[in-house]
Design goal:
Blueprint (H helix, E strand, L loop, with lengths): L2 H12 L4 E2 L2 H4 L16 E3 L4 H13 L4 E4 L16 E4 L6 E5 L4 E5 L4 H8 L4 E2 L12 H7 L6 H4 L6 E7 L5 E5 L8 H7 L8 E8 L1 E2 L3 E9 L2 H13 L6 E6 H11 L9 E9 L1 H17 L4 E5 L2 H17 L6 E4 L2 E2 L5 H14 L3 E6 L5 E2 L1 E5 L6 H18 L18 H4 L2 H14 L17 H8 L5
Parallel strand pairs: 2-4, 3-4
Antiparallel strand pairs: 1-2, 5-6, 6-10, 7-11, 8-9, 8-10, 12-14, 12-15, 13-14, 13-18, 16-20, 17-19, 18-20
This protein binds flavin-adenine dinucleotide.
Flavin-adenine dinucleotide binds next to strand 3, helix 5 and strand 10.
Length: 475
């Protein structure tokens, strides 16, 4: 590949202000929010339209140059890592909300639009975009689609796939593909659902029409303090078993509480070992009766206190530990690696005991802040990567946690995807025949090894060597 010629071609097609190729500036694109693997792109480009993306991909194909889509880079599995170098296609300049259609309850936006801005654009119509990853003030629609992101309100409202009506994608050869449409039942909706969650390996999404959800009439939020994680997790199962499906059911352990206490002065009753945040919505009567039921279930399982509010300001205060918890953990250690696994809800107590024990054995602090209602764990491993052996220790602990999720009948990822982080773990969960089927399915879209290579599927050409190089292992 002639890099100089490639950059010249990109600059003359896009304009040099939409191409970044200086070494120091590229450093910011070495990784996403999964920081253990790093690989620098040769350039980052900033298209403004579907046509720009088509032109970029055609130039990359001509030069046989790998390309990788990137939204805000908040991904937690290395999906936006330029695994074989090449061109990173950033959607940072594709942020337009193109249409708000309250009558049909939909909105059309470019892929780089920030999740929260979709809800802001719909707010005047008393509607919102329901998928709300905790990164929603930064992460993009394209990233949410690629990862099929969930969030605190997934339990009741579902993941991103349930809220996408149609999308435009640029395929591996620069061709434009429109999948789905303006209505839920469309002949190509099935194909569209294959793209959602494919982590940018099938093409680059440039626009999407999303479903808008009417705002609930009433919302009640409860923050319950429990002496132990076990009591809190048992309450999660009890709430669902009682037939209450809260809009959100989130848990935080004592390490998260210490961090938010130190960072924001938040305080909880003496002896609190875990917090459970429960939100119920619907009609005023429905939300009230559900939160009252939750209150009784918490009391039956030994809660130390339950604070309930329907006032927006007080509710925001109750959410504070959940919203700010991950950021506050930066006080505990300089390196945070957020894991993501799913287990059946009833196994939460056993799994959390295992996480704490495994982290401890590897000299790591594990903090837990997660979507308990979905059984979706996020153990955050806190350590200092500058200490010799600690990266290997974190990888070992992470791998043991993932193996345990599989053993308990769960999955290697709930919402953060496979990316490069779990490319080996795929083999723990799927048989060679399963993996071959997934490879065949990808071949139906393309057989190019230039489009976001070395993600999800483990047997891709040349990827083991690249990965060893990033990880500093001699080949
Ligand atoms: C503090 C924090 C909290 C988080 N909370 C949650 C949560 O509650 N739920 C959850 O699901 N995730 C969560 N995440 C993970 C992350 O925010 C989501 O995966 C998010 O959807 C990624 O969006 P992004 O724009 O940052 O995408 P990026 O990180 O830039 O990319 C993610 C993947 O999408 C691909 N991609 C990006 N744009 C496109 C496109 N236009 N077309 C095709 N592929 C594309 C990339 O190649 C990559 O594989 C969290 C992350 C952080 C840091």
């Amino acid at each position: 590949m002639d890099l100089g010629q490639l950059l010249d071609d990109l600059c003359s097609f896009l304009g040099s202000d939409q191409v970044l190729s200086e070494g120091a500036a590229l450093k910011a694109y070495d990784c996403d929010a999964y920081t253990l693997d790093k690989s620098r792109p040769q350039a980052v480009v900033f298209p403004r339209s579907t046509e720009d993306v088509q032109g970029i991909i055609r130039i990359c194909q001509e030069h046989e140059c790998p390309f990788t889509p990137r939204g805000a880079g908040t991904g937690l599995s290395g999906g936006a890592l330029a695994a074989k170098g090449g061109i990173l296609i950033s959607t940072k300049a594709m942020t337009q909300i193109l249409d708000v259609d309250p009558e049909n309850g939909s909105l059309l936006a470019q892929a780089g639009a920030v999740n929260l801005n979709l809800t802001r654009a719909a707010a005047g119509h008393n509607m919102h975009f329901a998928p709300d990853p905790s990164s929603q003030s930064v992460s993009t629609l394209g990233g949410n689609i690629a990862e099929n992101s969930g969030g605190p309100h997934t339990l009741k409202y579902g993941v991103t796939a349930q809220h996408i009506l149609g999308l435009t994608m640029v395929g591996f050869d620069g061709g434009r593909v429109d999948l789905g449409g303006e209505v839920a039942e469309h002949p190509t909706s099935g194909w569209m659902n294959l793209v959602i969650g494919s982590e940018g390996t099938l093409g680059i999404v440039t626009e999407a029409r999303v479903k808008l959800t009417p705002n609930p009439e009433a919302t009640q939020t409860a923050l319950a303090a429990f002496p132990t994680v076990r009591q809190a997790t048992e309450t999660v199962s009890a709430i669902i078993a009682a037939g209450v499906i809260p809009a959100a059911l989130e848990m935080m352990d004592s390490r998260v509480m210490s961090a938010v206490r130190a960072a924001f002065g938040l305080d909880y009753p003496e002896g609190t070992g875990a917090l459970l945040l429960v939100e119920c919505d619907g009609s005023p009567e429905e939300a009230l009766s559900e939160i009252q039921e939750v209150n009784s279930l918490c009391a039956e399982r030994g809660s130390l206190s339950v604070v309930i509010s329907d006032d927006p300001e007080q509710r925001a205060q109750l959410w504070k530990a959940r919203k700010k918890g991950i950021g506050a953990l930066g006080r505990i250690a300089p390196t945070l690696v957020t894991h993501d696994g799913v287990i059946p809800r009833s196994k939460l107590p056993e799994m959390l005991d295992f996480v704490i024990k495994t982290a401890h054995e590897n000299r790591i602090i594990a903090a837990n802040i997660f979507h308990a209602g979905d059984g979706n764990l996020h153990p955050i491993l806190c350590f200092d990567e500058r200490e010799p052996g600690m990266i290997a220790a974190a990888e070992r602990a992470g791998s043991e946690i993932i193996r345990k999720c599989i053993e308990l009948g769960g999955s290697i990822t709930g919402e953060h995807g496979v990316g490069v982080e779990k490319i080996d773990a795929i083999k723990l969960m799927f048989s060679p025949d399963d993996i071959r089927l997934q490879e065949d399915f990808k071949s139906a879209f393309h057989q190019s090894d230039l489009c976001n290579p070395c993600k999800i599927l483990p047997n891709q050409k040349g990827c083991v060597e690249h990965m060893r190089r990033w990880r500093g292992v001699a080949t």
